[in-house]
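Could you please consider the sequence and fold following this short note?
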Amino acid sequence: MTKLKTHSGAKKRFKLTASGKIRRGHAMKRHNMRKRPTDMKRDARGMCIMDSCDAKVIKKSFLPYGLS
């Protein structure tokens, strides 16, 4: 069977933790920030761990060999 390609958009958007979980950025942070409450903006800093059901799809389809 041929080798699978890593999705180039997924390479830029996701990071793997040492235990193999996937980290992602928070949504709704690109524009219209003046409308968002301060606590929402503060909670959306940094990255968060993706849910296992969504991470399974990302790992299988977009990142077949992980990130290197």
